[in-house]
Amino acid sequence: MSEPENTAEREFPPICDYEGSTYQTEFWEQGGREYEDRVEAIALRRLLPPKGELLLEVGAGAGRNTPRYQGYDRIVLLDYSITQLQQAQARLGRDERYIYVAADAYRLPFVKGLFDSATMIRVLHHMAHGPKVIRGIREVLRPGGVFILEFANKRNLKAIARYLLRKQTWNPFDPHPIEFVELNFNFHPATTRQWLREAGFAIEQQLTVSHFRIWWLKRVVPISWLVALDAALQWTGNWWQYSPSVFLRSRAQGESVLAAPGTFFRCLQCGNTTFHQTSQQITCQTCGTQWAIHDGIYNFKSPVSTNLSFG
Ligand SMILES: C[S@@+](CC[C@H](N)C(=O)[O-])C[C@H]1O[C@@H](n2cnc3c(N)ncnc32)[C@H](O)[C@@H]1O
Ligand SMILES: [Zn+2]
Residue 30 gets which letter from DSSP? Predict the structure, then answer.
């Protein structure tokens, strides 16, 4: 897959903004997606190491998956949308285990080598620049850290059938991402694997998920049967991938640093890692840039102030 031509787009790829969205209630709670939710829970349970110290959930949204990470001492919910994080806070509470961070996944405000695991579920499909976000996640993982990535698979059976029947113009076998609606992409499995390898991950396991995402089937067959069948078929994902959703477990390989004890955030302006924090704001001790903290949500989307003459 080619990199964006334009430098500004490469630095700051466009963001699919969920600010003010009722995604959690409309899409999940009232959207008839119990089947999808249950099979994703199964895939996550199969892939994620059950215990750990610190997990990064990229694009956490309203925290639908967060309760599935109970074995982790602390969980960072990162999302660009503050309202999504507020919904997550309302569902999960102000428990000290949860750290809410509003930030762009392309520019993660953390020190390198911090997390022992990361997940990104139903988020890559909004990414115009997949390799960049995957590289960023690799950097903040510890050596040997685990990354669970879900992606929307363009080479799924429905897309293949539609293509063969000439009801769809784009070719599901073509390796490039397809943007079917603005900032909504589907990816080829081989391309996604290549991005992971290039970023320094070794792929350990692939599960194919949501084989029966067909509205009429979900109406006529009991959901628990479809879930059980899907759970069995998920294991075929190491051999072939023709389902609409694929989950991959990858492990950070090669040279990487371990975060220095006591460090956590990394300044997005100067890259330094010492901060002064109050309940309202966090200030870089090196360059003086300040970011707001609102009701327990760190806002690294844009600074409240920068002080270029600081220090
Ligand atoms: C489809 S929702 C998925 C939410 C959650 N992972 C789930 O599975 O229920 C996608 C989420 O990704 C977030 N998102 C999209 N682009 C982002 C970016 N560049 N940085 C951080 N979050 C982003 C959106 O705000 C939204 O909450
Ligand atoms: Zn700084």
Answer: T
Q: What pLDDT is recorded for position 8? A: 64
Bridge partner list, 293: 298
- Ligand 1 atom nearest to CA at 61: 27
Instruction: At 103, list the tokens.
Output: 């930030």
What are the structure tokens assigned to 186, written together?
């589907």
Element (H, E) at 43: helix 34-47
The number of residues in the chain equals 311
The vertex-194 CA angle with 16 and 204, nearest 5°, equals 100
Domains defined along the chain, listed by start = 7-264 (3.40.50.150), 270-311 (no CATH)
Global model pTM greater than 0.90 = yes
Instruction: Using the mean position of ligand 2's atoms as its centre, give its distance from the Cα of residue 308 in Å.
Output: 9
Residue ranges lining ligand 1, Cβ < 6 Å = 15-16, 18, 23, 59-61, 64-65, 79-81, 84, 104-106, 121-123, 126
Residues of the chain with pLDDT under 70: 1-9, 307-311
